[in-house]
Design a protein that fits this description.
Strand content: 15-25%
Strand order of the largest sheet: 2-1-3-4-5-6
Structural class: alpha/beta
Bound molecules: S-adenosyl-L-homocysteine, iron/sulfur cluster, FE3-S4 cluster
CATH topology of the domain at 5-127: Rossmann fold
CATH class of the domain at 5-127: Alpha Beta
Number of helices: 14
Largest sheet: 6 strands, parallel
Radius of gyration: 22 Å
Shape: globular
CATH superfamily of the domain at 5-127: Methylthiotransferase, N-terminal domain
Number of strands: 21
Length: about 450
Amino acid sequence: MSAPKKLYIKTYGCQMNVYDSERMAEAMGGAGYVETRDVSDADMILLNTCHIREKAAEKVYSELGRFRELKDARPDLKIGVAGCVAQAEGEEIMRRQPLVDLVVGPQSYHRLPEMEARLAKGEKALDTDFPEEDKFEALKARPKARRGPTAFLTVQEGCDKFCAFCVVPYTRGSEVSRPAGRILEEASGLVERGVREITLLGQNVNAYHGVGPKGGDWSLARLIWALSEVDGLERIRFTTSHPNDMSDDLIEAHANCAKLMPYLHLPVQSGSDRILKRMNRKHTAQSYLDVIGRIRAARPDILLSGDFIVGFPEETDADFEDTLRLIEAVGYGTAYSFKYSTRPGTPAANRAQVDPSVADERLQRLQALLTRQQREVQQSMVGREVSVLFEKPGRQPGQMVGKSEYLHAVHVVAPDIRPGDIARVRISESGANSLAGVLI
Ligand code: SAH
Ligand code: SF4
Ligand code: F3S
């Protein structure tokens, strides 16, 4: 038997890409590949890319350029591009970078092994279809090996919302929800392999509407309740949600489902109704605040997270002040903020752009406010009891690191704790990006 070939995967972008990379590695396992962390050792390099902002896409080309020497030294090294850049500009990648042998879009990962067989014959392969067959079904076989205590599980893919700035509806296609029975099976398989916390993923995860195991239409809340019955699964999370899809049953699950963690990422993008309208977000600042109010009434300790874009075309100082006001009104435990990046083919691309230096200044002010809020929320944890799911050893001897219910990183000196253990911890200190505590 010949030695297995080595696959090196580098992942950019969102958690759905992280999940997809795992599944691609598994699919290639069936074609005789094992994963390597050493790029110089690889027979095949796969970049799983992100197209969300211009910089993310440009990174792919500069990274590819760096593989030239490797390929010169080993002409049979295969180089592939997967993910959202592959979907958006597959043919252009092939033209611009002759080093690339393979381009595969996010909906075609199950076809990777056949594509690899074509590469072995010296051909190139490009597949950016939105095929009829279900890639999740085709990728079903999963190994039985033990794995870490947390896992992602994609339940929904694609987006029909068409925010004016965003490429996702084009790169990931329209909304598709996986059948609930399949998700429950996959979750049970993960739990058998040692997983105790699952984060359900979707570009619009709370718009999930899958077929139930006995037919009918299941909402995300119904799926969460069913998952909460899986023995050994201790924690459930989901991301990313859209404010307009925060249904009553999902809010109720936050109140009553003990395994659903008190953390919610709910992007709003802007606090200005004028800009929200121009963004095609289909909600107002007030309707967002109303949703937040209902969620907090159901689960008062929930930690809220958001996404913000500054410098969207035509954003004025007054619009920006509205965004700051909304942030003050919510009080985020954590948040992600970005300078608007023009994406070719999206409706906002041709509108009057904000001066980049103005956008930079706004981003700094916004981030200063969000950082202050994050510190305050973290500081408010000091003295409180939390439960921590431990994931790995920390930097100090005897130290273990894990996550609280609120997704704060917590480190504790506890030599007897193993990855996968859940323990009560009293928080003693708040650092820059993590909390320290002692076992109770
Ligand atoms: N489906 C999710 C996430 C979309 S992408 C949602 O609707 O929230 C993640 C974040 O990237 C977005 O929330 C937005 O804040 C940011 N983003 C998307 N397109 C962008 C662009 N063209 N420029 C800057 N930020 C962008
Ligand atoms: Fe993009 Fe808007 Fe869809 Fe989120 S809801 S993926 S921001 S189009
Ligand atoms: Fe990026 Fe595609 Fe995710 S564009 S954010 S990798 S859906």
